[in-house]
Design brief:
heterotrimer, A mainly alpha (260), B alpha/beta (239), C mainly alpha (250), A: 260 residues, mainly alpha, MetI-like fold, C: 250 residues, elongated
Chain lengths: 260, 239, 250
């Protein structure tokens, strides 16, 4: 697009590696030069990760976090997509329900924590329902958006071939809306991952979020804190990449023209 | 036919009276925006006339029907289905063996062999248009409505496609109503050309094209008919 | 007219349902809508409401503005330069999914408990999404625009100000609206943990110092309303005519 020449293939690996190496070096040396006793250097963090794996604590926490996300996100998908499809299909219903959604949406799932704790007590259920609430709105919004933006040609063609409303919904509207829905799901999953960490810091005592808080509280183990943070980042990245891979499937790919 | 939008009524079609015979190829010809597409959509049952009625085989038209398939410009092709998937789309009430047979037959008929598993984004405009025609034909309709189907194609492809369409029409003999703004196209394809005026559209003239196919586009009769329509529309002869 | 009333009718119906559900439940912890309204009145009377709202808005504004000032130029540069994008993208993609809240221990370590920590968290929450939005916006500029600019002999600076900037502004504004929403979410969470004023703190404090759940829910309602107002404010920016070129129907 700009810049001198087309970057060569090897450059695709060279630059990120260089930048990351510089970043790590900067990190390492700022720890060394400031002679801080608390903040970990990259090597400390690496040892921290090894320690967590060794103590078998890490796997259990990862699985706990993922499990809560799976349940909360799964429930949000199962409920959110049909609701969104219905609202998108019947604009009259959408006009009525939308204001309620717009009011509830900006309330951070984290602000719901006290209510969740009141209703469900401290523990798994509270965390999962927070994830559910956080993921639900983007999914509904994306589904409504997907359905209302189905080009009318497709619906007309479907009716032309004699499809009744049920078939029309499943064979035309849903596939046509799917690209937008998948983007909504990806965003919702990102939110779910943020919420689970937050929920675990406040409302439960296991999982990666809890690991972050606990490492600090019980012993100022900042090496474990940073280790946990990086693992959170890594898993979040894997989840996001997984979804982006989904977006490349041929029967969905048509909906994305230029995406980076 | 009157459209109402934002409280303003716009008469789009006025006093249209037309009869079409079975197996005929009729062209609706007129400048862009004159309402011919509206007329076509009304015939297909997507719109209800504000006054008057459409009858096909002595039945009043209430809505879209698989016996009368509308071919949009290539944008009507479903991008999430393969070529085969698209052609197969309307065949859901048939047994699997017959579906496979029909799909194969129409893939061949429109010349898309080798692309059965391809998705529409990989096809050219002309190929997508052919796909849409194949999809329409697969359900064996009585009538086809085509709304400027070749409008998005380059002029060379357009000539090729016209030949293809005639070939298919002669093989299957469906009743075809074809909307275009291209005078040559109308005279090359149709048995009758319905010349429409600007909005609110009325029928200015119905021209019988009595040249047999294949038509020689430099024959005197062709030029005579074509020039007649040029004059009717009021266009100058030289640019 | 009747149609306009329907959403209000729905909200009213939901409120009634809420009232019903709470009063019928023997364990009366969750407040009724009316109690919430009284709670809001209570806060207004004691002058707390205004004080907390201002505190929260103050932190969000600082964090958000800092994020914009840093992320937008940086993002434009990284997006413009392909190699820079190749270099920094992996690290950014790794840091982005880390919830700002996970940064809390580090924030407290570096800034202690207090305003700076909260603002830092909000900054983090806004910085990464905005940076990535800016990068994507630049990379998405159709080449034709750049070529046209070059064709007319624009210098580099002119190219940036007369082609690049106007081209990315619509996307940037949408990104800013979304990021402001994120900032608002983060401030509430940050206040629950790291400071002693603001709406997030109100929620935690009301519960801890006396189980005043009416105030808790009142706080939530106000958070929702202000979040909505912020969002609507940003949307009206999107409608300014000179920026509207990129929105076909909204």
């Amino acid at each position: 697009m700009n810049s001198l020449a087309e970057p060569k293939k090897w450059e695709k690996f060279f630059w990120p590696v260089l930048a990351t190496a510089l970043f790590l070096a900067l990190w390492h040396y700022s720890v060394v030069w400031t002679a801080t006793k608390i903040f970990p250097s990259p090597l400390d963090v690496k040892k921290g990760v090894a320690e967590l794996i060794h103590k078998k604590v890490l796997w259990r926490d990862i699985i706990d976090s993922l499990r809560r996300v799976a349940i909360g996100f799964g429930a949000a998908t199962v409920i959110g997509i049909p609701v969104g499809l219905t609202l998108g299909w019947y604009p009259a219903a959408n006009k009525v329900v939308n204001p309620v959604l717009q009011i509830l949406r900006p309330i951070s799932p984290i602000a719901w924590i006290p209510v969740a704790i009141i209703l469900l007590g401290v523990g798994d259920h509270a965390a999962t329902s927070l994830i559910f609430v956080g993921a639900l709105f983007p999914i509904i919004v994306a589904s409504v958006d997907g359905v209302s933006n189905v080009p009318s040609v497709f619906r007309l063609a479907g009716r032309n071939f004699g499809l009744g409303p049920a078939r029309l919904l499943t064979r035309v509207v849903f596939p046509a809306a799917l690209p937008k829905i998948i983007v909504g799901l990806r965003i919702a999953l990102g939110i779910a991952w943020l919420v689970v960490v937050a929920a675990e810091m406040i409302a439960v005592d296991s999982g990666l979020g809890y690991l972050v808080i606990d490492s600090r509280n019980s012993g100022k183990r900042y090496d474990l804190v940073v280790a946990a943070m990086l693992i959170i980042g890594l898993i979040g990245l894997i989840l996001d990449s997984g979804f982006r891979w989904l977006e490349k499937i041929k029967s969905v790919r048509w909906g994305f023209r230029d995406e980076s | 036919m009157v459209f109402t939008r934002d409280g303003k009524s716009t008469p789009v079609l006025d006093d249209i009276s037309l009869e079409v015979a079975d197996g005929e190829f009729v062209c609706l010809l007129g400048p862009s925006g004159c309402g011919k597409s509206t007329l076509l959509s009304t015939m297909a049952g997507f719109l209800s006339p504000t006054s008057g009625e459409i009858k096909i085989d002595a039945e009043v038209v209430h809505g879209p029907d698989p016996r009368r398939i509308f071919v949009f410009q290539e944008r009507g092709v479903f991008p999430w289905l393969t070529v085969e998937g698209n052609i197969d789309f309307g065949l859901f009430h048939l047994p699997a063996a017959e579906r496979r047979q029909r799909v194969a037959h129409y893939v061949k008929m429109v010349g898309l062999e080798g692309f059965e598993k391809a998705y529409p984004p990989a096809l050219s405009g002309g190929m997508k248009q052919r796909l849409e025609v194949a999809r329409a034909l697969a359900v064996n309709p009585d009538m086809l409505f085509l709304d400027e189907p070749f409008g998005a194609l380059d002029s060379i492809t357009r000539l090729v496609m016209r030949g293809e369409l005639l070939r298919i029409w002669e093989a299957e003999r469906k009743t075809i109503i074809f909307v275009t703004h291209d005078i040559d196209e109308a005279v090359q394809l149709a048995d009758r050309v319905v010349v429409m005026s600007a909005r609110p559209a009325t029928i200015q003239q119905i021209v019988n094209i009595d040249i047999p196919h294949p038509r020689d586009i430099s024959s005197p009769r062709y030029l005579e008919l074509r020039d007649g329509i040029f004059q009717q529309i009021g266009l100058a002869h030289k640019i | 007219m009747i149609v306009r009333l329907r959403p209000i009718a729905l909200i009213a119906a939901l409120l009634l349902l809420w009232q019903f559900a709470v009063t019928r439940n023997p364990i009366h912890i969750l407040p009724t809508p009316w109690e919430v309204v009284k709670g809001i009145g209570d806060l207004l009377q004691h002058g707390l409401l205004l004080k907390y709202v201002v505190a929260s808005l103050f932190r969000v504004t600082w964090g958000f503005v800092l994020a914009v000032l840093l992320a937008v130029p940086l993002g434009l540069v990284i997006g413009w330069n392909r190699r820079a994008n190749m270099a920094f993208n992996p690290v950014l993609q790794l840091l982005r999914p880390i919830s700002p809240l996970a940064w809390i221990p580090l924030a407290i370590l570096w800034f202690g408990v207090g305003d700076f920590a909260a603002i830092f968290l909000i900054f983090l929450g806004c910085f990464f999404p905005l940076l990535l939005t800016a990068i994507n916006a630049v990379r998405g500029i159709p080449e034709v625009y750049i070529n046209a600019g070059r064709n007319f002999g624009l210098s580099s600076t002119a190219l940036v100000s007369r082609v690049l900037f106007p081209a990315v502004i619509p996307q940037l504004i949408i990104g800013m609206r979304i990021t402001l929403g994120v900032g608002w979410l983060v401030v509430v969470a940050a206040e629950m943990i790291a400071v002693s004023s603001g709406l997030g703190f109100l929620i935690v404090d009301a519960r801890n110092a006396g189980n005043r759940y009416d105030l808790v829910v009142a706080g939530m309602v106000i958070i929702g309303l202000i979040g909505l107002l912020l969002d609507m404010g940003m949307r009206s920016l999107e409608h300014l005519k000179s920026l509207r070129w990129s929105y076909s129907e909204d």
